[in-house]
Amino acid sequence: MAKPIGGTLVETYLNLRGIGKLRDTSMLRFHPSCYWKPEGDAPTEIWPAMIAAVNDLDGRITGVHRTWLSRDGRSKAPLDPPRKAMGHLLGHAVRFGAVRDILAAGEGIETVLSLRQILPDLPMNASDDITSEPISSPTDHIVQQLQLYGYHPVAGEVDPRDPPEEHSIEGAVTDIFDALVATMSDTSLDPDLPEVLWSMVNIFHRALDRLERKLDDNEQAQKRLQREQDGSEVKSVQLETLIAMGQGLLDRRNSLEHFRETAADHFASFTGTPWTPRTGSRVDHRHLTAAMIDSRDFIATKRRFEHETLLPPGVKIAFSGGDSSEHRLIWDRLDQVLAKHPDMVLLHGGSPKGAEKIAALWASQRKSASGYLQA
Fold first, then answer.
1. Which of 3-7, 173-177, 219-223 has the lowest mean pLDDT?
2. Burial 162-181, CB ≥16 within 10 A → b, else e
3. CA 46, CA 272: separation in Å to the nearest integer?
4. Mean pLDDT estimate for the chain
5. Listed range (130-134, 221-225, 233-237) with the worst mean pLDDT
6. Distance (Å, rounded) from C-alpha 251 to C-alpha 258?
7. Nearest alpha carbon to residue 108 among 132, 82, 88
């Protein structure tokens, strides 16, 4: 049975998104065990959920919207999709406040509740089902002004939006360069044109630098969560979220690289010189095909095996003793080290006499697990 959201996982979920002022939320409920039916023959799952009533203008419930939550309420449940609606939805919505002459409409309950933090008295509708057909709904007969608010993911949430298509990127960059060249050429700004065009490419290059740092942070966060995995669903969902966010960052990086490379091509075309950054390196990951990655992995593996042949795994013990002939003392010390480090690898200079010769004879006699190495 659904109940008010106060003190429930719904309140936790909304608070973590900066939605702390919860007023006029009687249309929201919390259900601790809401069924989620996947497509096909997969088994039904049970998750906690935020339940929202879909109403018409007279306040009659025409449908139900469900948002499934993780077990701890910190995020949406790891389901695809995590939100579903049923009932008569067209022209109706989850309504916050009585509709007057001005109405704000947002895509998603979280978007609308975020806006209500700063506009608490403005009537708002939340709906995930927006038709593109130019039809009239009951709302059309009383509203004189409609304000639309789009979706933006909060920090720590996966962005479901797709990056721009490559042809759109190429068209946008072409328009930018054409406009700059047409405006500045044959004017007093003509000498400044190459520097302006270089800066246009550099804008995308600097954006890539910032994104690479975010990718590094995401990688470190994934490694940290890998170490913290304890078999719990919470840790598993957190890691899956980081992986999805990392993939989104990779998609953004590829798009920005296409922006930069397209701009660099235009720069070279207009100036006759290739574009090069003044700091950092210029890497294009789009040319990293599967064959290129496999080839690099093969070379790295080959080099690793070659290094392991010359430098076996184990604790490296460096030895040097000059012309000393105290073989009993040397052997006793090396026996003590071997007892402490059974996988030791003895490193010495390979001298044909003195302490290093004694150490080499000791290694040949003891035949430690890792053998010995003459460096």
1. 3-7
2. ebeeeeebbeebeebbeebb
3. 63
4. 81
5. 130-134
6. 11
7. 82
